[in-house]
């Protein structure tokens, strides 16, 4: 796979070419994904749940993400590698700069932050200092205690309108990707249309420019839990490489997510 940059994703958005992405946490899976031409990989703080067995992402530290970013980067020199900024690691713009520096030095090409317009100064500060930012909106799992659970966001008109405004403001502040998690498909379509930057969705329907899945869900690794919007591609193919290729192809053709894996 050739080296993927944000410019490729912008071009694909303009061409209407949909792309897949996945989380990864180690060099072996990073390499496997790169061999199957997965263009974007996220070292997600979901590692707190799927690797560490925690009930939320809150216990994850900057050191955890930096360690796994280094591991994944070793296996995937060419993907666009995003690293999650963990809970409370960007409470102020200064903290964000210090901690984002650690993740960029570990090999990330971009950092991902959860939150709306309160992040504008932080996004400006990071991007002006050459740290590319992905802004995560919708169900932001670090806010699970504010939301009272892992719940769909943006169903009410006023909240949907606010999310559109936040997405535009974050783009204006310098965010180069917006990630939408667990929002109604109609809202995801609205945000994808108004933004110039690529929008990656999870649980947001097949209307976004890209899709992302937690790799443990995509491969059906968690025995007793599967989010409604996710799909076990390994069950269908019986082979890890074929499962990854099927996921990438189904995203590209718009076959995934289908109606059964979409939040109305
Ligand atoms: O941490 C993570 O894996 C994520 C994805 C669910 C997008 O943020």
TrEMBL record:
Entry annotation: catalytic residues: 181
Cofactor: Mg(2+)
Entry superkingdom: Bacteria
EC number annotated for this UniProt entry: 2.1.2.11
Binding site for Mg(2+): 45, 84, 114
Major localization listed first in the record, in broad terms: cytoplasm
Oligomeric form and interacting partners: Homodecamer; pentamer of dimers.
One Pfam family linked to the record: Pantoate_transf
InterPro entries named among the record's database cross-references: Pantoate_hydroxy_MeTrfase, Pyrv/PenolPyrv_kinase-like_dom, Pyrv_kinase-like_dom_sf
Binding site for 3-methyl-2-oxobutanoate: 45-46, 84, 112
Subcellular location: Cytoplasm
Family recorded in the similarity comment: Belongs to the PanB family.
Key words, A-Z: Cytoplasm, Magnesium, Metal-binding, Methyltransferase, Pantothenate biosynthesis, Transferase
Record text on cofactor binding: Binds 1 Mg(2+) ion per subunit.
Gene3D superfamilies per UniProt: Phosphoenolpyruvate-binding domains
Protein's name according to its UniProt entry: 3-methyl-2-oxobutanoate hydroxymethyltransferase
EC category: transferase
GO biological process, alphabetically ordered: methylation; pantothenate biosynthetic process
GO cellular component, one term: cytoplasm
Involved pathway(s): Cofactor biosynthesis; (R)-pantothenate biosynthesis; (R)-pantoate from 3-methyl-2-oxobutanoate: step 1/2
Catalyzed reactions: (6R)-5,10-methylene-5,6,7,8-tetrahydrofolate + 3-methyl-2-oxobutanoate + H2O = 2-dehydropantoate + (6S)-5,6,7,8-tetrahydrofolate
One Gene Ontology MF term: 3-methyl-2-oxobutanoate hydroxymethyltransferase activity
General function of this protein: Catalyzes the reversible reaction in which hydroxymethyl group from 5,10-methylenetetrahydrofolate is transferred onto alpha-ketoisovalerate to form ketopantoate.
Record has Metal-binding as a keyword: yes
């Amino acid at each position: 796979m050739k080296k993927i940059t944000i410019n490729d994703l912008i071009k694909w958005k303009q061409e209407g070419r949909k792309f897949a992405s996945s989380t990864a946490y180690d060099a072996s899976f990073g390499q496997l994904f790169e061999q199957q031409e997965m263009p974007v990989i996220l070292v997600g703080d979901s590692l707190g749940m799927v690797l560490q067995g925690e009930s939320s992402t809150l216990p994850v530290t900057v050191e955890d993400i930096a360690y796994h970013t280094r591991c994944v980067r070793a296996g995937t020199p060419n993907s666009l590698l995003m690293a999650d900024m963990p809970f409370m690691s960007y409470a102020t713009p200064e903290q964000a700069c210090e901690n984002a520096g650690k993740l960029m030095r570990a090999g990330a090409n971009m950092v991902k932050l959860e939150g709306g317009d309160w992040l504008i100064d932080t996004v400006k500060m990071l991007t002006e200092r050459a740290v590319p930012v992905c802004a995560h909106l919708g169900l932001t799992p670090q806010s699970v205690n504010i939301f009272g659970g892992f719940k769909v966001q943006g169903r009410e008109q006023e909240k949907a309108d606010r999310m559109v405004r936040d997405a535009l403001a974050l783009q204006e502040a310098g965010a180069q990707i917006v990630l939408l998690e667990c929002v109604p498909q109609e809202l995801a379509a609205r945000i994808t249309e108004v933004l110039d930057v690529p929008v990656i969705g999870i649980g947001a329907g097949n209307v976004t420019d890209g899709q992302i899945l937690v790799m443990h869900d995509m491969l059906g690794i968690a025995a007793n839990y599967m989010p409604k919007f996710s799909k076990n591609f390994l069950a269908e193919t019986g082979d890890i490489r074929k499962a990854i290729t099927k996921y990438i192809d189904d995203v590209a053709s718009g076959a995934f997510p289908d109606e059964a894996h979409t939040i109305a």
